[in-house]
Write a structure and sequence with these properties.
The structure is a single chain. This protein has 310 residues and is of the alpha/beta class. It has 2 domains: 110 residues, 2-Layer Sandwich (Alpha-Beta Plaits); 153 residues, Rossmann fold, CATH 3.40.50.150. It has 8 helices and 14 strands. The protein has a 7-stranded mixed β-sheet, sandwiched between helices. The protein has a 4-stranded antiparallel β-sheet with strand order 2-3-1-4. The longest helix has 14 residues. The chain is globular.
Length: 310
């Protein structure tokens, strides 16, 4: 398969917010595995000894599949990024190049190194060595085509919340599972039954491989292809959705009957500017906001479902 590597180089007085907004535009096209380059990379999210040096520019890179090729999609991307001028971008430039699957994979490897997300959780690519410390929880990951690595702020925030709110024996649901990284985190921090759903059929194969690689039994997880929670049944103590703000707002009413009383909904993929919109939607449906975290222009929210009246 051919991929179109599309790079948006930009200048901004607030590069973190600008990168978050451009990333969200890529997500609107269905891409979840973008690369963000910054001269001021967050050391907490990329501390490996052999990590590449910081970039000399601010850029967001996405990999479009063949179906996105052509002037139509590039023009849409240019128009959407152009809407960010002059409020957040002073200038931007978009460049493209065709690459094959093999080159795509090698491009990912240049940007993916062992990353310590929390005090305990370390994301390690399968092709790299990491000397584990006592107490480390190692997640071995091959992101596969167009899926994230765990280093992006939205995923890092989600991982931290999943670790915090997972308790032994719970049932966990991941909406838009991608590489399966949140399901693996939940399993390694105590979840007993895992369910994941994604609209991309490739995600099922990628997530299954990653779950099995991390010694999670096939009998402990269920993977489904579908749109949001249309095909999901059951009750879950923790539900996570690392998507975009508008989709989260559309999803909230359908989350309510799937959460056990007092269950936790973790919502991420929300740019800071759209945080109030999501908070309002959650409160309108009876959720109690218990935690809000922000990182590099992104927000993650943990909300508790309503307890039954006594």
């Amino acid at each position: 398969m051919k991929w179109l590597k599309t790079t948006v180089v930009f200048e901004s007085g607030d590069p973190e917010t600008a990168a978050a907004l451009i990333n969200e535009i890529f997500q609107e096209f269905g891409l979840t595995g973008v690369i963000i380059e910054s001269p001021d990379r967050n050391a907490d999210l990329d501390w490996a000894e052999n990590a590449p040096p910081n970039a000399d520019r601010n850029a967001v890179i996405g990999f479009f599949t063949e179906k996105h090729h052509g002037e139509k999609y590039l023009k849409l991307l240019e128009n959407r990024v152009g809407e960010l001028k002059p409020s957040i971008l002073s200038r931007f430039e978009i460049s493209c190049s065709d690459i094959d699957d093999e080159d795509w994979a090698e491009s990912w490897k240049l940007h993916f190194h062992p990353v310590k997300i929390t005090d305990k959780i370390v994301i390690r690519p399968g092709w790299q060595h990491y000397d584990a410390l006592e107490g480390d929880i190692i997640i071995e990951l091959d992101p596969g085509m167009a899926f994230g690595t765990g280093t992006h702020p939205t995923t890092a925030l989600c991982i931290r919340m999943v670790e915090q709110y997972t308790t032994p024996g719970i049932k966990f649901l991941d909406i838009g599972m991608g590489s399966g990284i949140l399901m693996i985190t939940a399993a390694k921090t105590g979840a007993r039954i895992l369910t994941g759903i994604d609209s991309d059929p490739v995600a099922l194969e990628v997530a299954e491989n990653n779950l099995l690689t991390n010694n999670i039994s096939a009998g402990d997880f269920t993977l489904m292809e579908g749109d949001l929670v249309a095909t999901v049944n059951g009750s879950f103590e923790v539900i996570a959705a690392n998507i975009v703000a508008e989709t989260i707002c559309r999803l909230v009413p359908d989350i309510v009957p799937l959460l056990s009383p007092g269950g936790i909904f973790i919502a991420s993929g929300i740019i800071v500017e759209k945080e109030p919109m999501v908070l309002e939607k959650l409160c309108d449906h009876g959720f109690e906001i218990i935690e809000i975290r922000q990182l590099e222009g992104w927000t993650a929210i943990a909300a508790r479902s309503r307890m039954p009246d006594k």
